[in-house]
Structure formats: structure tokens, C-alpha cells
Amino acid sequence: MTLSPPASGRLADAYDLVIFDLDGVIYLSDSAVAGAVDAVKRLHDEGRAVAYATNNASRRATAVADLLTGLGVPAAADEVLTSAAAAARRLADRLEPGARVLVVGAEALRQEVAERGLTPVTSADDKPVAVVQGYGREVGWVILAEAALAVRAGALWIATNTDRTLPSPRGPLPGNGSLVAVLRTALDREPDEVIGKPEPVLFEEAVKKDSARRPVVVGDRLDTDIEGAVRAGMDSLLVLTGVSQPRDLVAAPEHQRPTYVAKDLAGLFDDVETLAVTGEGTGWRVTDGRLEGHGDPIAALRTIAAAAWSGTDVTHLEGAGDEAASALRTLGLGSVSRS
């Protein structure tokens, strides 16, 4: 699926399915991101199709839907796609019914594995034929040691995702990728398969379920949400409410560059021409190491990112005037001195 961004109109009107990441986009831990509830409710009120695709394997789809509903976001379980469910499906496709699987993660992952007709175990002594690893707050040395022994004995090793961090109101916390790194170090090898983003599996499932022809992915992480959208050939919107920040966007490699950038989900109702990462029509320009112009700092960010992606050195960008210097300070970019 390869799309050309529409030339004008609201972003929400340009696509027939909006696929949301959750952590850092809709909520942080169990608290709603500012403006997120109103934005998603507005989409529902307008009859827009939505889906939620999360790498977090610590909740099942029903629990995620309940959490969203409790926050005021209209959501049904069949709109939620989790890496836990996708990993369990993949295991069921590859293994014999009743096969033993050592589960590293939360109870939600264990339940998904059991419901696929497989047998969850917790010890390498049970001779599991596979290890599935997902995020869980209670994951510790004991279960990681059992997983290492099982993989070393020949078990298939599947990770639900490799997100290094999880966003939270207190700042980034260790994610499943940090736990996968423990086994990677102990085993000196990579997992046999990673299911979640940036792999396009969850996005492809969402598109298939809704028979969508023009989906857009909304996420807060360049290395999972946006890269996953690029791999799937889908347009994407980066919101700056979670992990990836302006400096990350400016330095993004080609395979992690979003189609659009917005401060938050209110951007869904802005014009696509305004949101697109280009150096045109923003009120800003980058010339000879200087940011010039006036207007919204996020518009300045789009201009700076476009310049950087085209090969312009923006490492020591300076603001030409008070407003430009203020925009750079707000974005955490450049030397922010006036010239």
C-alpha cells in the first residue's frame, strides 16, 4: 500500500481509517493525554472508523477497551489490536495444539496463549517448545533465567515488541525492549521473531478488519509507530505527546519520517497542507543557519525538519529575532541565540 498525501482538507476527512497507538497518544499510564478524549470522541461523532494498535502486551483487548471507555473514549474490544493477541496467534499457527510455551510477561499474555489452545508454562524444566516475551511489571530475574535456559535448549523465541521505553507522567520507563535486551545479552542472539511495531502486522490486521483503502497511523514514536507505517506503506501523523520529541524528528532517518506532525490529536482536524512536513506555507524558513519568520513553533519544527531531511545543516540553528529564538527554545532546538 503506497499513498500520495492529499493536497488539502482536514486530515480526518482524507482517510477512511485512523489507527491510533495508545501509550503516549491516548493515555499516559492510566491518565488521558490532554485533548485526546475530545479528539477521538469527535471522530466517533462524525462516524469515522478508528482502530487502536498497541505494542503493550500487559492488557487484553477487552481490558484496553474498558480503560478507554473509563477515560471517556468510545471504544469496543474489536477495535483494539494488541501485540499479545497477535503473538499468540502467530504461535498457534506455528506450533502443534497443546504445545508448551514459556510465557514471560503479564497475565494477559498468558491468557492469550491459553485461549489459542497452547499450554503456558513457567519453567524450562517443562521443556517448552517456545518462549513468548511481553511487557509485565512483575517480570524479574527468575522468569528471565528460565526463558534463557529454554531458548538455549532450542525453544523458539518470540517477542511481542522491542520498545526500549514506556511513556509515563513521570518520564520514560523501561519497556519490553529493555527486558528483551537482558535475554539478548545473556544469549548473545536476537529473538527469532518480533510481532509488534515497527513490524506492520497490527496495522495490516486493522486495515483488513475494516476493509480500509486509505488508512493513516497516529503515533508518538518514530522507531515503532512511524517506522511501522512506513514499512506498511501508510501515511502517518506524529504527535508530540509521548516519547519522540522535536530533536528526534529533525534527526529521523528516512524510514522513520512521518507524513505529518502535530502537537497533539487536535491536529486531526487541521488542514493536511498545514500539517505536512514541508518547508512551504508555514510562515518560517531556514536560511544560512538561521530560522526566520513567525507563527506556531510546531510549524517552525516542520520547516526545520524538512530542511534537515533535504540535507541542510541545522545543528547550530539560530533565531533571527525574538519570535524565532523563542520558537527554538520551545522546541529545544538550535543554539537559540538571537542574531
Number of E-state strands: 18
Helix content: 25-40%
The level 1 CATH classification of the largest domain is Alpha Beta
Termini separation (Å)?
46 Å
Largest sheet: 6 strands, parallel
Task: Report the CATH superfamily of the largest domain.
Answer: HAD superfamily/HAD-like
The backbone outline, from C-alpha atoms, is globular
**Total domain units:** 3
Q: Which radius of gyration do the C-alpha atoms yield?
A: 21 Å
Unreliable segments of 5+ consecutive residues: none
Broad structural category: alpha/beta
State the CATH architecture of the largest domain: 3-Layer(aba) Sandwich
Strand content: 15-25%
- What's the CATH topology name of the largest domain? Rossmann fold
The total count of helices amounts to 12
Q: What series of H and E elements makes up the topology?
A: EEEHEHEHEHEEHEEEHEHEHEHEHEEHEH
pLDDT average, as an integer?
Answer: 93
